[in-house]
Amino acid sequence: MTGLAPPDLTERPHNFTIERLMRAQPADLYDAWTQWFELWLAARGSVSMLPEVNAPFFFETQHAGIRHAHYGRFLELEHDRLIELTWVTTHTLGAETVVTVSLVPHGEGTLLRLRHAGFPTAQTASRQAEVWPGILEQLDARLSENAQP
């Protein structure tokens, strides 16, 4: 990788990994993570994102009428196989965490493995570990509903 260095997670060792069998194909999941955030995660009209390494991005999510800002940049992109990005929100206590998503063909779908690393506390990691399964479920459902966005 050239350009900006990835964040140093040495002092923030808290992380988790989850896996989910997805109905969607790796290509659709890759596109969802790099181009279609509004389809499954971001509030409409809030996304500013280019799928390029080191390109900064911004989007907002909305829960109970409250918008939550998310910032980051792509660290690594391997088409249909891997997305690695930084993730900064109030839920990470402003720390630049790293989300790594690997996509492995599995039967008619995909085994998605998500690792979220670099949390400043075990409690913040634990809270996010509880949230991600629902987010991935929503992603899978939205991709199933929309064969093409």
Automatic annotation (TrEMBL):
It comes from the Bacteria. It holds the Pfam family AHSA1. InterPro entries: ASHA1/2-like_C (IPR013538), START-like_dom_sf (IPR023393). Residues 24-143 form the Activator of Hsp90 ATPase homologue 1/2-like C-terminal domain. Belongs to the AHA1 family. This is Uncharacterized protein YndB with AHSA1/START domain. It comes from Glaciibacter psychrotolerans.
